[in-house]
Amino acid sequence: MLTDRGWAALGASLALFVLWIALGEPELLSIGLLLAVATTVAFMFVRRSNPTVAVTRRLSPNLVHEGEQTVVEASLTNVGPQRVWNLVAEDEVAGLGSARFAAARLAPDETVTATYQILCKPRGIYDVGPLRLSVTDPLRLADRSQLLGESDRLIVYPSVEQLSGLPVLRGLDPSMYASQPEFSHHGGEDFYTLREYQTGDDLRRVHWPSTAKLDELMIRQLETPWQSRALVFFDGRRHSYDGMEAFEKAVSGAASVIRHLLTSGFDADLWTGGAPISSDEPDSYARSMEALAGVQPAEGLDLRAAALRLQRGGRGGALVLVTGTPDGELLAVDHLLTRNFSSTVLMSVAPQTSVTLSSFRRAGTLTMAIRPEGSWATAWLDATSSQWRTASAG
Fold first, then answer.
1. DSSP-derived 3-state class of residue 252
2. Is 242 strand, coil or helix?
3. Which residues in 268-304 are b (16+ Cβ under 10 Å) and which e?
4. pLDDT tens for residues 316-343?
């Protein structure tokens, strides 16, 4: 098809024909014919061009956090028998922009590679490509384009802050506290701890050296201790937030605490609506971050019903509630789940302190409230340090 330049040349040609008829100047006719012929030749040139080009693309990395950059390498290989001229390729990243590059010629089996960078902001899940390949004439009067290759997925995780400190978890013995979780081992012969044999235990789990030493059957405990578990409950209700800035800060808080807990030895589950993402599943960290990358404010989200479902499958440990302005419905969630969890943390993003916040504190919830421009790292460290000092003094 004709490009804008081609249509302009064709329009100028017609205008010159009209002027030639009106004025009778032969120069006008000559220039008009020249433009018409050039446009026709360009159109026929691209019509006959049928390049056979293979496209490959590599993103490095394809999993990034908001504000980071990724490098894209797009390669074109002429797999046809003929030389291809005047190629223009455009690779588009939906929502983030596009990159254009050209190749004057491409011989059979020849490969050209273009590299460009993407500033990954905001968070989200983006499609890169497919690549649009255009063949044009030397004067850029006509072109012919086609989509080539598959699209790749670019996942931009939420921005995260480096958190320090852990909430105090009350253990089975009310006089004992744990400020650091015990690390669990999945598979193999490693085990978390030893316990006395109970009727029905698998005798293959007997730890014979300890049994001989203590004169009591001791079983290797392979399950993750409940003190090393956590559930991050993300409140996605639109009306809980005073604008998108507060919502994005809450998403960042949820991502930060997921990463912090997992790197600290916790098995951290995540709920953002629907079924929870269990840390027992393969690639749970990537799945949690992907869920937070795509989460958006929702209408009609029933937190109480979700809490009842989570209550039936509760695994204990720490409960982390992430919200904007806490309200009575979230407080009901806290009351429903408090029997299953030994410790509760509330992370709130609001321009001003909520009245409901004091109700959470009276219920024994560790609370941290920041403004949308505030820092989770500072609030988390202050809250956990204060709780640890209180627990130690008690």
1. helix
2. coil
3. bbbbbbeebbbbeeeebbeebbbbbbebeeeeebebe
4. 678 999 999 999 999 999 998 888 887 8
Residue 198: CB atoms within 10 Å: 8
In DSSP terms, which residues pair with 124 in a beta bridge?
156
- What tens digit of pLDDT does each residue of 347-358 get? 999 988 778 888
Secondary structure letter of residue 206 according to DSSP: B
Residue 202 is predicted with a pLDDT of 67
Burial class (CB in 10 A: 0-12, 13-18, 19+), 358: exposed
* Token pair in block for residue 340: 């299953």
Note the pTM of the prediction, 2 decimals.
Answer: 0.74
Q: Using H for helix, E for strand and C for coil, what is the string for 154-199? A: EEEECCCCCCCCCCCEECCCCCCEECCCCCCCCCCCCCCEEEECCC
pLDDT in tens, 135-189: 888 888 888 888 888 899 999 999 999 998 877 654 433 333 344 444 444 444 4
Length of the chain, in residues: 394
Q: Which structure tokens are listed for 316?
A: 């204990």
Q: Quick one: which H or E segment has residue 367?
A: strand 366-370
The token duo for 137 is 């004439």
Query: How far apart are alpha carbons 74 and 258 in whole angstroms?
Result: 34
Contact 161, 256 (CB under 8 A): yes
Structure-token match 């440990």, residue found: 317
Give residue 35's identity as a one-letter amino acid code: L
Question: Hey, what are 317's tokens?
Answer: 């440990």
